[in-house]
Amino acid sequence: MTVLRPGPTRRTRPLPPRPLAVLVTALLAALSLTLPLTSAQAADTPARGSAYMGMGVLAHDGRSGTPSTGDVTQTEGVDVSAYQGNVAWSTLWGSGVRWAYTKATEGTYYTNPYFAQQYNGSYNVGMIRGAYHFATPDTTSGATQANYFVDHGGGWSRDGQTLPGALDIEWNPYGAACYGKTASQMVGWIADFVNTYKARTGRYAVIYTAASWWTQCTGDYGGFAVNDPLCRLPPLAHGLFRTAPGPTPCPAPVLHPYPHRRGAGLT
Questions:
Q1: Whether 155 contacts 145, CB under 8 Å
Q2: What is the mean pLDDT of residues 173-187?
Q3: Bigger pLDDT: 207 or 4?
Q4: Mean pLDDT of the residues in the chain
Q5: Which parts of the chain are beta strand (E)?
Q6: In this structure, what DSSP letter does residue 44 have?
Q7: Which end of the chain is less crowded, N or C, counting CB atoms within 10 A of the terminal residue's CB?
């Protein structure tokens, strides 16, 4: 646009036409400002249902809480999900693995297609087994997800070989770390889950979390310690679990299921 100034009128030179490629680039750049996610951000977000136990712990908390070899008598275990497929349980038993947690559900939209082989297979070779649920507090209520978990393999049985189900609540791989909840709202969501699980199974769920996530998203809430199965273990049993650095649901933290290894490469 020509700008008028006092004094003699000056003629402006018309701008040369822009090449088509330049116009297209400008249009795409403007359009990208209105999109909720860039393609790079979308590529970094995993698919719903793909989360697994401890997915964000190493990235946020590192390995500083892992005990040194020989600190306590330890029993090795694994956690597995659909990523591992059909697991060779007899091979794991032969290598010294004696317990396993298997992902059963996530939110109210996902069930592990390999759950039966993984959950029953570990039991059949003599391992202590348990199921876990990956929580998504931003999708449905704690009670709804607890019921979904129990209805899809996350129950408990008095057979001396089945652990209470575990609530895996940690860094959100799909969005905001605290799932858009305040600390009091998060505590309420967790209470809703564990109380519903207790009503359905007769046992409180184990809470698996990350120390720094617990601080950020619950405000270091300690009210679950009285009922969490791991918090109530006798001192000698704590050798089965590795302690987590920093505050957790237990006053003496025993959260992340202990000297265990991810199930990758164990099929």
A1: no
A2: 96
A3: 207
A4: 76
A5: 77-80, 99-106, 110-111, 128-134, 166-168, 206-208, 260-262
A6: H
A7: N
